[in-house]
Design a protein that fits this description.
With about 280 residues, the protein is mostly beta strands. The protein contains 3 helices and 20 strands.
């Protein structure tokens, strides 16, 4: 159903994603707008919401585990020399308004609030575009502006002492199946080979579907990919990989990730071709 709190994205009139702006979720899950379900053109669901293994994984969206010590990811917080710890430090992303709404996308304003204070203001632009009769692209841009009078830094479990856990930023929780999905870039394959590395695009393929993630700006392509396939299927673009990312008062960071959503299992050549079509200059 389409409503004020759940617009539906369409490609050539076909629904391919539902966006929830005001989810009713426990504070511990860091409530935030998300896309779910997202489907292929044939109707295969390629996202998961609130899965048992990680209740705070909410389809497709932006999630950051450490914004000046506040948790906008959900779940436990990684504390240096202590490990994952339950803390009362969860923030929430609050939908303010749609600046634009069309059947194929929207422009949204959000406020990132924690401990009664607005830390960041976000403009989010999401668009769905048809590519072929079996593939479409989700174009997802977010800009975060520090609206406080002081510097704000963005961190991750990796910057807080947990190697290999630099998650935080754009994140897609993918469909979980009986067999782990295959993951590859243009020149590498397997979770260990691609995780924590940069690549112009990265593909995740399941039984009957493929997702191809591409950084659509030069700055976005400099962020390493966060990849999980064995523990759970998920892909993200890391804002804070090796060190905390500072944001001065009034400064804005912008990232844009375009994801090809396709029926069938793409190979490297097919994935690259669709990325070229989706991320046109």
């Amino acid at each position: 159903m389409t409503g004020p709190d759940s617009p539906v994205l369409r490609v050539a009139g076909r629904p391919v994603g539902r966006y929830v702006t005001r989810p009713e979720l426990p504070v511990r899950l860091s409530p935030r707008p998300y896309l779910h379900p997202v489907t292929t053109l044939a109707g295969t669901v390629v996202t998961e919401f609130n899965p048992a293994d990680h209740l705070h994984h909410l389809g497709v969206g932006v999630a950051v585990p450490d914004v000046e010590g506040h948790n906008f990811w959900g779940g436990r917080t990684y504390v240096r020399d202590q490990g994952p710890t339950e803390l009362d430090n969860h923030g929430a992303q609050r939908h303010t308004a749609f600046q634009l709404r069309d059947p194929d996308g929207f422009v949204e304003e959000l406020r990132w609030v924690a401990a009664g204070t607005e830390l960041l203001r976000e403009r989010r632009t999401v668009a769905a575009t048809g590519l072929t009769d079996v593939a479409w692209a989700l174009d997802f841009t977010f800009s975060l502006t520090n609206v406080t009078p002081d510097p704000v830094t963005i961190g991750s479990p990796a910057t807080n002492g947990r190697p290999g856990a630099a998650y935080g930023g754009f994140f897609w929780r993918a469909r979980k199946e009986s067999t782990a999905p295959h993951v590859f870039t243009a020149d590498r394959a397997g979770e260990q080979a691609v995780h924590g590395r940069t690549a112009d695009w990265l593909a995740l393929t399941g039984a009957t579907w493929s997702l191809v993630f591409a950084g659509a700006t030069e700055r976005t392509r400099r962020d390493p990919w966060f990849v999980r396939t064995e523990e759970y299927p998920g892909v993200g673009s890391s804002l804070a990989h090796g060190e905390r990312l500072p944001l001065a008062p009034g400064d804005t960071l912008v990232r844009r990730v375009v994801t090809v959503v396709a029926d069938g299992r793409l190979d490297a050549e097919g994935a690259a071709a669709l990325v070229r079509k989706a991320v046109a200059p």
